[in-house]
Amino acid sequence: MGRRHGIRNSNSFAQKKRNQKHKQKDVWDPAKARMNYVDTVRESEGFSTYYKKQNVCPENEWEQMMATLKETLPTSFRITGSKMEASAMLDVIEGQFFKELLPTGVDTGTDIKPPKQLPWYPDRLAWQLDISRKDIRRSEEYYRLHNFLIAETSTGNISRQEAVSMIPPLVLDVKPHHKVLDMCAAPGSKTAQLIEMLHADQQPGDPPPEGFVIANDMDNMRCYMLVHQLKRLSSPCVVIVNHDASQLPNMQIPGQDGNPTPLKFDRILCDVPCTGDGTLRKNPDIWEKWNAANGNNLHGIQYRVARRGLELLAVGGRMVYSTCSLNPIENEAVLHRILKECEGSVELEDASASLPGLQFKQGMTTWTPCSKDLIGYEKYEDVPEQWRTQVRPSMFPPAKEDASKYNLDRCIRILPHLQNTGGFFVAVLNKVKTLPWEARPKTTEQSSDSGEINEATEVNSANSPPVKKRRTDEAESTEQNVNSDETKEVSDEVKPPKGNPKKNPKSRGYKEDPFVFFSESEELWPVLQEAYDLKSELSCTSFLTRCAVGKKKNIYFTTPALRDLIKNNEQRIKIINTGVKAFARCDNKAMKCCFRLAQEGLKCIESFIGPKRRIRVDKDDLVLLLTCQDPSCPPEIEKYSAPTQEALNRLEDHGSFVVEFEGKTSFGRQLVTTLVGWKGTRSVRAYVGVDECVHTLRLLGEDVSKYEVNKFKNRAENKESELAKINEESKQETDQKEENENDTVEDKATVTNDHENGNP
Ligand SMILES: C[S@@+](CC[C@H](N)C(=O)[O-])C[C@H]1O[C@@H](n2cnc3c(N)ncnc32)[C@H](O)[C@@H]1O
């Protein structure tokens, strides 16, 4: 029987073949993909009719705009980090990387244009490549560029971001002491920029800045994209919260006298959910879905979010309103409605001077609200009853004689053809006085600020201008039309906490572990202080864990300002994440302290770590440390230079310590860096991820080619070996089959013989 099974198992061979065929089907076929790409119909009659009616683009540029909208979007990125780090990176990118990887004027037989520096971004730190992200990802000729972009993004040294999306944080002009709110922050490319601006002046060894960023998003899952995106920056100055921005609760911070005082922000980014038709080049599926109702349906939530932003803004503060939509209903109409209600307490600013070389169109002072059937209306009275829930009175432009009051022409609209980008809209608002409804006396109910988390809390509702409860059409469209432009980048890696989400994850989501700050009497503190020679200026109350009881796993660090904010408001705000891992549990018998230093948090606390637990190395020793990627065989202590060996011997215990380096990059620029080292019995290694090692080695001018992975070559090799494996298996199966068949014949012969011998 067994042998017969063997014969029948030849089906498994067929199954394998079927699987193989199936796999081959899944293999990316560039020609096929290009066909699909081309197949997407990149036009919409409704879109053309609507925007021609709005005069969004001068007639003589219309064809050019439409042609550009049909092309794929170039890739752009920013160089990030402190000024010193960014300049060092720029040297490598301009001086070496572009030359090696991309044809800069040299005819290489391809039609790729040289990288273009974005003139309006300061210090030559933003670049555009005339290749789409998809092409970079999918063609072998760019595999090194792709590796570079991925690795340097993961270490937070560059940020891949659509060019126009870099503008709102730039014009927001964030300073290190600012309290900043990002109202609709996920997936977080602009938040990252805001955080970088907060840290811009920080030199190695400086304490973190005083200011902070509160990054909010209503969608719980997208909050975890934010967590992922912002983790790369290792900033102790950011907290991620999960609220409907139009109802963000009032928060309190300690005032100068120590008593709680209402938190008002210096800077607010209001990058609202929108139809995203400015991203058509990147998201061609929007062509098919485009209709005039989408913008109309979002106007309400856009207005409510912006209005709440202005309430939370300090007098003298600045708010940037932006969308990646070209539609005046989502842009100028929202601002007009707000400016009208603010009665001069908020002014639009012309921010174009801070964006030298940017090509844009001034904001529109008039437009034509349309219903879904693309009929336009001069005034609300003309709107037929059936469309009155969609086309609202507030959407109409100011009367001609009033138009100059609002300075809507100070808004900035970027059309795709102007400099080969996506479409975008941005406006800068300055709050010059308290809002009219803030100045009105509060009711007793409103003066109580101690509300627990309550999604339905109407904030400042009694004094606010009358706003009808959110209509169903608006609610639905907000959720469906949320611009998904930057979602795809990180979606694979979103890791919300394990466990079942509650029924409506968008608004409620997962229950987060608590944020438990150390008290002055934390018993672990003296152990950490002793182990890492921590200076007394470092207060233990800025550290927190995520477990109320039991063994502490990781210890996170936040700035004192954020700690105060969280402690004062944890009952009213839903916190998703904060803090940078500074210490990680490491129950190693050789260590007196059961926590090691964590690389992520080193920058935050290294200035407080005393000489007992730090050593300085020269370039050769640093390279030795960084080039060892095999933790099972780290370089032995005797391989390091004599001074490093001496310093290592002076370290009292095994375990983690700070490695300092001060030297020059391959371009002669000063480089100061610190990393976590680990001293074992006989060896020493760096506790640093491979991408970070490669980054530093690159800056030092070391050869990093051994880290280059050519996935195309690997895939081809794998395919070959898989084919060889299948051939081998198939040969074995055939042999087996033949053997079985022979056996069967033999069996039969035996049976015959047995019969002949009279056996059963
Ligand atoms: C245009 S995207 C923001 C992009 C983001 N600023 C960036 O640069 O990466 C709009 C975001 O608003 C969020 N959102 C939608 N309605 C919201 C609301 N009522 N309150 C807060 N966030 C909201 C969406 O989940 C989405 O993540």
UniProtKB/TrEMBL annotation:
Gene Ontology cellular component annotations, sorted alphabetically: cytoplasm; nucleus
Residues involved in S-adenosyl-L-methionine binding: 184-190, 217, 244, 271
Source taxon at top rank: Eukaryota
Gene Ontology molecular function, alphabetical: tRNA (cytidine-5-)-methyltransferase activity; tRNA binding
Pfam families cross-referenced by the UniProt entry: Methyltr_RsmB-F, Pre-PUA_NSUN2, PUA_NSUN2
Basic and acidic residues composition bias: residue spans: 485-496
GO biological process: tRNA methylation
Entry annotated with the keyword Ribonucleoprotein: no
Domain SAM-dependent MTase RsmB/NOP-type: 65-432
Keywords in alphabetical order: Methyltransferase, Nucleus, RNA-binding, S-adenosyl-L-methionine, Transferase, tRNA processing, tRNA-binding
Ranges annotated as biased composition (Polar residues): 444-464
Residues forming the catalytic site: 324 (nucleophile)
Chain segments carrying region Disordered: 1-27, 440-508, 717-760
Enzyme Commission number(s) from the entry: 2.1.1.203
Stretches with biased composition (Basic residues): 15-24
Compartment(s): Nucleus
InterPro entries on file: MeTrfase_RsmB-F_NOP2_cat, MeTrfase_RsmB-F_NOP2_dom, Pre-PUA_NSUN2, PUA_NSUN2, RCMT, RCMT_NCL1, RsmB/NOL1/NOP2-like_CS, SAM-dependent_MTases_sf
PANTHER family linked: NCL1 YEAST -RELATED NOL1/NOP2/FMU SUN DOMAIN-CONTAINING (PTHR22808), RNA CYTOSINE-C(5)-METHYLTRANSFERASE NSUN2-RELATED (PTHR22808:SF1)
UniProt similarity note: Belongs to the class I-like SAM-binding methyltransferase superfamily. RsmB/NOP family.
Protein name: tRNA (cytosine(34)-C(5))-methyltransferase
Organism: Frankliniella occidentalis (Western flower thrips)
